[in-house]
């Protein structure tokens, strides 16, 4: 709070962000940001939520092909501490390797917001999962973190991921 | 807070040196974003919190490794002050790989290398990648979503000279 605060609200197809500042004892609006919401945004968010559910389900089944199918041919997947997977072949290979090493015991993906920007939808969210190594005697890996995903509208109206980045909330995690 | 990663800033590379796609944007937009990124970087090199914050949206989400999201200017200010107090940043290099413009938003992706000199202890050399979503706001382009990845844990490395 202090000498400024942010007020956010939504009216029909527009969202507003006001920054209020205290000047000489009186509150004044310093800036206003209005963002027009695409009437389709609810449908887009629904499509992304459904795609995320399919993604988690495919992960649990170890279905690398379905995981990779979520991405466009020229997509880039960027996870910490490893080379980015660029393009369908690398993404497919990457997921194939990953699911051969780990089983997904539990996973939660929560979308925090989706903003439409032309033919892009920018999704921000969090994840929490437990990975079980398929070989050896290593302990399960428990992790939680956040992601930023850029979806691209496809010619058939569907949405696929074009850029995907994530990191862990845990210090020193993968 | 994770070690000084908020400071991974952006070098003002010529826009021609990166892959810029304008979809509903203009070269003027690209130029403005590159200039804003340069200002941000300079703020970190100078240890100037206000300069770095000047290109941060009031609605920013900082998504740094090893810590939960930080939201808004006030949260960003706290992170910046903490890190600028703890570290001097004498060198920042950023390789912008692409800048995808879509109307009032732009996706900025690249890698960074930075040198962080703590008040006490060994110099840290950190590397990683970033994805920043810029948003056109009153007064110019602002960083609205900011996520970093580390390539490897920043190691306590070579002795300073």
Question: How would you concisely characterize the structure shown here?
Answer:
The complex is a heterodimer of chains A (174) and B (161). Chain A is of the alpha+beta class and 174 residues long.
3D architecture notes:
The complex is a heterodimer of chains A (174) and B (161). Chain A has 174 residues and is of the alpha+beta class. Helices cover 23% and strands 53% of the residues of chain A. In chain A, strands 5-4-9-8-7-6 form a six-stranded mixed beta sheet, covered by helices on one side. A three-stranded antiparallel beta sheet of chain A has the order 1-2-3, with no helix packed on it. With 161 residues, chain B is of the alpha+beta class. Chain B has one domain: Roll (Nuclear Transport Factor 2, Chain: A). In chain B, strands 1, 2, 3, 4, 5, 6, 7 and 8 form an eight-stranded mixed beta sheet that branches. In chain B, strand 4 and strand 5 form a beta hairpin. The longest helix of chain B has 20 residues. Chains A and B meet through strand 1, strand 3, strand 7, strand 8 and strand 9 of A and strand 2, strand 5, strand 6 and strand 7 of B.
Measured by residues with Cβ under 8 Å of the partner chain's Cβ, the largest interface is:
A-B, 35 and 37 residues
| First-residue to last-residue Cα separation of chain A | 35 Å
Q: What is the share of helical residues of chain B?
A: 10-25%
Shape of chain B: globular
Number of strands of chain B: 8
Instruction: Kindly report the oligomeric state of this protein.
Output: heterodimer
Low-confidence stretches of chain B: 1-5, 8-19, 154-161
Number of helices of chain B: 3
Q: Largest sheet of chain A, described in full?
A: 6 strands, mixed
For the record, the CATH class of the largest domain in chain A is Alpha Beta
Please give the count of helices of chain A: 3
Helix content of chain A: 10-25%
CATH class of chain B: Alpha Beta
Instruction: State the order of secondary-structure elements of chain B, H for helix, E for strand.
Output: EHHEEHEEEEE
Name given to the CATH architecture of the largest domain in chain A: Roll
Output the helix-strand order of chain A.
EEEHHEEHEEEE
Mean pLDDT of chain A: 89
User: What is the CATH T-level topology of the largest domain in chain A?
Assistant: Nuclear Transport Factor 2, Chain: A
In what range is the share of β-strand residues of chain A? over 45%
The total tally of domains of chain A equals: 2
For the biggest sheet of chain B, the summary is: 8 strands, mixed
């Amino acid at each position: 709070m202090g000498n400024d605060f942010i007020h956010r609200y939504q009216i029909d197809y527009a969202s507003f962000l006001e920054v209020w500042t205290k000047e000489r004892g009186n509150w004044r609006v310093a800036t206003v940001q209005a963002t027009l919401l695409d009437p389709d945004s609810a449908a887009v968010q629904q499509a992304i939520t459904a795609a995320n559910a399919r993604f988690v389900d495919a992960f649990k089944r170890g279905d690398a092909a379905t995981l990779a199918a979520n991405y466009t041919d020229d997509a880039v997947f960027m996870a910490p501490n490893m080379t980015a997977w660029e393009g369908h072949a690398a993404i497919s290979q990457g997921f194939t390797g990953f699911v051969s090493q780990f089983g997904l015991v539990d996973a939660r993906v929560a979308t925090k917001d989706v903003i439409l920007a032309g033919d892009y939808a920018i999704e921000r969210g969090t994840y929490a999962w437990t990975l079980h190594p398929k070989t050896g005697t290593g302990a399960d890996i428990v992790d939680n973190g956040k992601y930023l995903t850029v979806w691209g509208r496809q010619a058939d109206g569907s949405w696929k991921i074009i850029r995907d980045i994530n990191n862990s909330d845990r210090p020193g995690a993968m | 807070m994770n070690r000084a990663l908020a400071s991974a800033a952006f070098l003002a590379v010529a826009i021609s040196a990166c892959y810029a796609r304008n979809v509903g944007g203009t070269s003027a937009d690209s130029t403005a974003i590159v200039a804003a990124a340069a200002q941000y970087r300079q703020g970190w090199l100078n240890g100037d919190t206000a300069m770095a914050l000047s290109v941060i949206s009031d609605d920013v989400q900082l998504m740094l490794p090893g810590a939960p999201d930080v939201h808004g200017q006030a949260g960003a200010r706290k992170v910046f002050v903490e890190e600028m107090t703890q570290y001097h940043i004498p060198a920042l290099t950023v390789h912008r790989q692409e800048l995808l413009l879509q109307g009032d938003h732009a996706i900025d992706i690249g890698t960074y290398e930075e040198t962080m000199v703590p008040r006490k202890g060994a110099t840290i050399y950190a590397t990683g990648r970033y994805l920043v979503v810029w948003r056109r706001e009153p007064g110019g382009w602002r960083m609205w979503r900011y996520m970093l990845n580390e390539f490897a844990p920043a190691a306590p490395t070579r002795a300073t000279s």
